[in-house]
Design a protein that fits this description.
The chain has about 300 residues and is mainly α. It has 2 domains: about 200 residues, no CATH class; about 70 residues, no CATH class. It has 12 helices and no strands. α3 crosses α5 and α5 crosses α9. About 25% of the residues are buried. It comes from Staphylococcus intermedius NCTC 11048. This is PTS system, mannose/fructose/N -acetylgalactosamine-specific component IIC.
């Protein structure tokens, strides 16, 4: 299957838009949305969700501080979904061989976009001195152009000229280097776990480890119980045609609700403990302030 011209156009336009959404509205500028939209354009939403969801989990603990550049997971997801569907790649293999490397390389175009925007920043400074408010607005909006092009151009070039290269790589990975291709597939499946590990490193896990253990046990128990009921219902339905009751698995929303309840309880408890009585001479207030300090496992 080839990537059609209209698919290249739509994917390029989305690649340019997603970075603007990421720095402005932050609604559709996430890998999971990039996977869904790319999957819709390519005609395989399942593959888009697998790659987009995997990439979203991989960067869970990755953030930008002080304007620092980070890997462009969205562009990596767009290209991985496009080539995975077009060439029939295993989604996990596409995640490891395309999504992550491309996302890392796009750091350079991110830096280039930031560098180019200084041109418009200096023009805005001159417009401020001239009290040219319309000029200030125009140059502010012009700054969106380098951001969009920094993603749209590399994605466009990769989609148009990179198909043959990716096709050869896939053939090698599934042929002479099958052992490497299988290893990269396994690595792609493990990447979300790496994202969770990075996230846990920055969470105050040492302070709240009882909730972490409790949440893990509740999730494991609920999944086991609901899976058992579902299997039992399927077996009974096979023996008795009059048995029409269906058993559904535990939705992730229910697990999230349990976590939210525990988080609300902990927040309520810590908020009350930090309220210092007025007749204690400020001693409790000092202790409460100390409790709120960031510890080493929260950095």
């Amino acid at each position: 299957m080839d990537i059609l011209w209209w698919q290249v156009l739509l994917l390029t336009l989305y690649a340019g838009y997603q970075i603007l959404d990421d720095i402005q509205f932050n609604i559709f500028g996430h890998p999971v949305f990039a996977g869904i939209i790319s999957g819709l354009i390519m005609g395989d939403v399942t593959t888009g969700l697998i790659i987009g969801g995997g990439m979203q989990l991989t960067i869970l603990g990755v953030g930008t501080f002080g304007g620092a550049s980070r890997i462009d997971a969205n562009s990596g997801t767009v290209l991985a979904v496009a080539f995975s569907v077009a060439l029939g790649m295993n989604p996990q293999q596409a995640l490891a061989t395309l999504a992550v490397p491309v996302a890392s390389l796009m750091i350079q175009t991110d830096i280039l976009a930031r560098f180019t925007n200084t041109f418009f920043a200096h023009r805005i400074d001159r417009k401020i001195e001239q009290m040219d408010y319309k000029g200030i607005e125009r140059n502010y909006l012009y700054g969106a152009i380098p951001w969009a092009l920094s993603r749209a151009i590399p994605v466009f070039l990769a989609l148009v000229f990179g198909g043959s290269v990716v096709s050869k790589i896939v053939d090698y990975l599934n042929g002479d280097l099958k052992w490497l291709g299988d290893g990269l597939t396994v690595a792609g499946a493990v990447l979300p776990a790496v994202g969770f590990a990075i996230l846990l490193r920055y969470l105050p896990l040492k302070k709240h480890y009882p909730y972490f253990i409790l949440g893990f046990i509740i999730t494991a128990l609920m999944v086991t119980v609901f899976n058992g009921l579902s299997g039992l219902g399927t077996s009974v339905a096979g023996l008795d045609k009059n048995f029409t009751m269906s058993f559904s698995s535990l939705p992730m929303l229910a697990i999230a609700a349990i976590g939210f309840a525990l988080a609300a309880m902990e927040y309520s408890r810590t908020s009350q403990s930090k309220v210092a009585p007025a007749n204690n001479g400020g001693r409790q207030a000092t202790d409460a302030d100390d409790e709120g300090e960031i510890e080493d496992d929260e950095l």
